[in-house]
Design brief:
Blueprint lengths: L2 H10 L7 E5 L5 H7 L4 E6 L3 H11 L12 E5 L13 E10 L5 H12 L3 E12 L6 H10 L14 H8 L3 E9 L2 E3 L2 H9 L5 H6 L2 H12 L9 E3 L2 E8 L2
Helix pairs in contact: 1-2, 4-6, 5-9, 7-9
Protein name: Methyltransferase type 11
Organism: Streptomyces longwoodensis
GO molecular function, one term: methyltransferase activity
Length: 247
């Protein structure tokens, strides 16, 4: 769903051979795979989901296959500090593509992650932060509130205009431009949309607080306004990214 965002960032920063990418919260590795197709060297870090990291390994490290990786790639399960290595040069691009501005405490978690990652980047390296756009332009944020109704205290929070700048300031970074990218979420049907949204992990706390069936029901009801006549689900969204620099 965020492919247009990845493309916009990589095009703006001219990612290619010679770029050394540190991807924070790399998940299943799609953003890294796109950077690899441009010839960048990659290190991905994932702490929350071993299952997604396993998928990233299948995509980027084809062990036992005849095909060879297109570029240097390394995947690490753990904290950003675990991505430190003896090879040089240091990272020239740090990406944090998981959007903030949807869950309580997400800005603080990103700031802590950056505190460990920024020392691994060279002077002047770009650091890319991503946030949800204004709620009136992000249909999916209305669906995220379905999770909040099942939690006490609620985990969902509305995005703030200066979320990204505040995180950058806390990390000692210098803002160097921003942009907005349309990233609609499309699904074949409500069931597909529910499965897709549940796979993000954003609703895990809601499921633990009540039960999975109740969360499924809440999500299906929240998705109803975005279901088209042919049964497909289409949610327009806008995401904002900030490019900051390591001093």
């Amino acid at each position: 769903m965020l492919v247009p965002l990845y493309e916009a960032v990589y095009e703006r920063l001219d990612v290619g051979p010679g770029t050394r990418v540190l991807g924070l919260g790399c998940g299943s590795g799609l953003a890294l795979l796109m950077a690899a197709s441009r010839g960048a060297a990659l290190t991905g870090v994932e702490s929350a989901s071993p299952e997604r990291l396993a998928l990233a390994r299948e995509r980027l490290l084809p062990e036992g296959r005849q095909a060879r990786p297109r570029t240097e790639a390394r995947l690490v399960q753990g904290a950003p500090g675990d991505a430190a290595g003896t090879r040089s040069p240091a990272y020239t691009l740090v990406t944090a593509f998981e959007p903030i501005g949807a869950l309580a405490g997400d800005a603080e978690r990103l700031a802590a992650s950056l505190a460990a990652a920024v020392p691994l980047a060279r002077h002047g390296a770009a650091v890319v932060l991503v946030g949800w756009g204004p709620p009136e332009r992000c249909a999916t944020t209305a669906v995220l509130r379905a999770a909040a109704r099942e939690n006490e205290p609620p985990r969902w929070r509305p995005p703030l205009r200066d979320d990204l700048e505040r995180v950058a300031e806390r990390a000692g970074l210098t803002p160097d431009g921003s942009g907005r990218v349309a990233c609609p979420f499309g699904y074949a049907g409500v069931d597909s949309a529910v499965r897709g949204l549940l796979s993000t992990g954003l609703f895990d706390a809601a499921a633990a607080a009540t039960d999975a069936a109740q969360v499924d029901k809440e999500l299906a009801e929240a998705l109803h306004p975005y279901q088209r006549r042919d049964g497909t689900v289409w949610m327009p969204n806008v995401f904002r990214y900030l490019v900051a620099r390591v001093p």
